Amino acid sequence: MAEIIPNSSNIDPRSGFCKSNSTFYSKRKPNPLPPNESLDVTTFISSRPHHGQIAFIDAATGRQLTFSDVWRAVDAVSSSLSADFGIRKGHVILLLTPNSIYFPIVCLAVMSLGAIITTTNPLNTSGEIAKQIADSKPVLAFTIPQLLPKIADSNLPIVILGPNCNPNSSKLRIVTSIEEMMRREPSQSRVKERVNQDDTATLLYSSGTTGASKGVVSSHRNLIAMVQTVVNRFKLDEDKQTFICTVPMFHIYGLVAFATGLIASGSTVVILSKFEMDEMLMAIQKFSANYLPLVPPILVALVNNADVIRKKYDLSSLNSVLCGGAPLSKEVIEGFSEKYPNVTILQGYGLTESTGIGASTDSQEESRRYGTAGLLSPNMEAKIVDPESGEALTVNRTGELWLRGPTIMKGYFSNEEATASTLDSRGWLRTGDLCYIDEDGFIFVVDRLKELIKYKGYQVPPAELEALLLTHPEIADAAVIPFPDKEVGQFPMAYVVRKTGSTLTESGVMDFIAKQVAPYKRIRQVAFVASIPKNPSGKILRKDLIKLAVSKL
């Protein structure tokens, strides 16, 4: 059946809702998107006019890269990748590193060739990284010397991020260093294949409720649309701004803002390799930063420690904090506004599957609509769908949020079943979030249909931990739930059924998991029970266990 294309008279200007097709339309001004099909995101970013001088600063060393330094380095690295290593369109390149000034250079160089960048969390275990390598099949890896042991068994050729490329290990195939590649003169003999906007640019891995991490395939078109949204959201073309980067660049949040989005605007990005509160605050003071992207637990810490922080650091340059990961409560927003009256809170909602774009609050006034994820981003459409009946709902009715727009992924890598269950034939992305949209067009996230645990902004799939628990010789059954915590948001808690005669302890369970997963996935609380509640089809009744856990607070 052909889709109804509404005219503006059918759309409620207050909510953005169209009765004729039960779709919500963004109230924000649409972003213009380039019409030429033959365009890669690197070329799009490099061709944007701006007046910025310094692109990146390494907070630890003070090393600076100007915009001309960055583009010279991108040109040299892409030339080396093509001429020296035969990297071609469609090849996958693995990037395993903490935040670094090399991160955007590698991403932009790889994507300029039509090759595909896949990133992974430096905290992941070698086993977790090996699964991603087996799935994505990269032909080359970039990493730092300290992380070499995590890919030692991969047999991948490796480029060292930094000057050192001679570690003592016969197992490793170190081929060069990023510094050597950056010194290379761009080669006229490199193969420059035609890249189209629909070609794949990134392959980021998103935690699934089944426990199997899925590769999210995003196109150059997705990233170009994302860059336009980021630049226009903050009106970055109008004035020079300095951002602090503590959120992880391997994650969609960091990739959106720091590896691609902000370099298009002429803004300066101060990069911290990891989050450390004092280092972050010192960097704001030292570099007179204006914008601070963060996740809710850090914002809460800024409120709770405000008196000490304001005495110790000069944060007068800071005018905005950008918070993503979960909606902020009224208490947190009001507490922050009281302690930092000159700083505006801006919130955002997005998924890896939507290239980090979905909804946002773009002013203090919008953020004071407490609990909201914001208004739909430019060019974005939404539906609220009843999960049981499939009926599209109207204003102030709760259902699953579906999104459609130019930043929605192409699908999941080599996983037709998962793609079909998440993307429909008309391009609607089922977000897995239960939401409603109010009469003014603001989105409110009520609950997650997906059962992911959000620990400090990291996604932890319960099913992955449950599968590991069931491999323990003394565990008969197990369930993992999100346990609410003011400091970290949520942490994994396990309910465990011991086998008859077992004397397994709480610490024994936690230690067993800690040896097999990244630190953010560790189980931090255990309760032993006689049985795990399940529905007739055998599905764990996680909500019953959450109620039980919370009732004992």
Automatic annotation (TrEMBL):
Signal peptide: none annotated. Keywords: Ligase, Membrane, Phenylpropanoid metabolism, Transmembrane, Transmembrane helix. The keyword Transferase does not apply. InterPro entries: AMP-bd_C, AMP-bd_C_sf, AMP-binding_CS, AMP-dep_synth/lig_dom, ANL_N_sf. SUPFAM superfamilies: Acetyl-CoA synthetase-like. The chain crosses the membrane at residues 250-272. Residues 464-539 form the AMP-binding enzyme C-terminal domain. It comes from the Eukaryota. The keyword Ligase applies. Pfam families: AMP-binding, AMP-binding_C. Pathway: Phytoalexin biosynthesis; 3,4',5-trihydroxystilbene biosynthesis; 3,4',5-trihydroxystilbene from trans-4-coumarate: step 1/2. Residues 50-413 form the AMP-dependent synthetase/ligase domain. Belongs to the ATP-dependent AMP-binding enzyme family. This is 4-coumarate--CoA ligase. It comes from Rehmannia glutinosa.
